[in-house]
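A student in our group prepared the protein record below, which I am reviewing. Thanks in advance; the entry in question is below.
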Amino acid sequence: MALVQSEQGSHHHAALAVCCALVAVPCCLALSAYDSVASLLFKRSEYPLFPAHNLVRGVLQNIDLAILHAIMVTPRVAPDVGTYPTKTRRHCLIMLGLGLALYEVLWAALSGRLAEPMGLVMGLVVLVLIPMMPMPRDVEWAED
């Protein structure tokens, strides 16, 4: 009995890890593509003389942000997408990761125009809480 529960638990953890990866990888790749264009092509960065330095910093920040989003999103959407066919579930999670990346890019463009930088609390609300609120409703389109 304990062996069956252990196997079910490990299968559940593996499924959650796959869901996390399907959200995080496209999100990170899209954010890194945006950073590479901004840093290398348009030279928009903190250190314009060292675009590769800025690109590496951006990619590391993108990895952190994508992992954070995947960890926050997966428990909220896994019960909803768990019943979908495999192909639909994968497409849904990939599009969710790309949507999170688009949100981050748009917010970065808007926050760059602010007169003064946001504080830590407001930054956490904008980067973490606001994108997480509509998540279960965001995946309902895939059911149709």
